Amino acid sequence: MSHLHQPGRRRALAVLGALPLLAAGCGFQLRGARPLPFDTIYLGMYEYSELAAAIRRQIKAGSTTRVVARQEDAAVRLEVLADAKEKAILALNTQGRVREYQLRQRFSFRLVDRNGQVVIAPNEILLRRDLAFDDSQVLAKEQEEILLYRDMQGDLVQQLMRRLSAARMPDAPPKP
Questions:
Q1: What is the torsion angle, in degrees rounded to the nearest 10, for the CA atoms of residue 109, residue 112, residue 116 and residue 121?
Q2: In 3-state terms, what secondary structure has residue 12?
Q3: Do residues 148 and 102 lie in contact, with contact meaning Cβ atoms separated by under 8 Å?
Q4: Rg of the chain over CA atoms, in angstroms?
Q5: Nearest 10 degrees: CA dihedral of 137, 142, 146, 147?
Q6: By CB count within 10 A, which of 1, 20, 38, 155 is most buried?
Q7: Beta-carbon neighbour count of residue 59 at 10 Å?
Q8: What mean pLDDT value characterizes the chain?
């Protein structure tokens, strides 16, 4: 190794070492777990669905909130009003064959406390992804569609968690 490259290497290492300090100094920090404003939650959806499992995992990993099996044991319940996946044609080629699809996932929900008071009014999360299509690559495009829907589900769970963490619990009703 020649001595000519040593000063350049040292300078590069010094710059790389200083980057985290600069980032921390400007107030940048990674988005951490945001606690949910309730102790327990009941998920009003099919228990064994992929979406329910992903929500359960995210709640367990990012907060101290517990997911309970009975809605009577929960401080709040997530009511799923709609959960639909759609596939729409965006463009056709000159022969009239599909050239591009748009994949959509629509998720509507509301959050209600154990007294029946609405904590989060009916809310909708709508996600879209465009998928270029080619007749000669049908199997590959099917796999790409599955991956896009999986990615959309991950985005949906993250958006749902942000909305749940921003929820404001109503004051307790006065005792008689």
A1: -60
A2: helix
A3: no
A4: 24
A5: 0
A6: 38
A7: 21
A8: 87
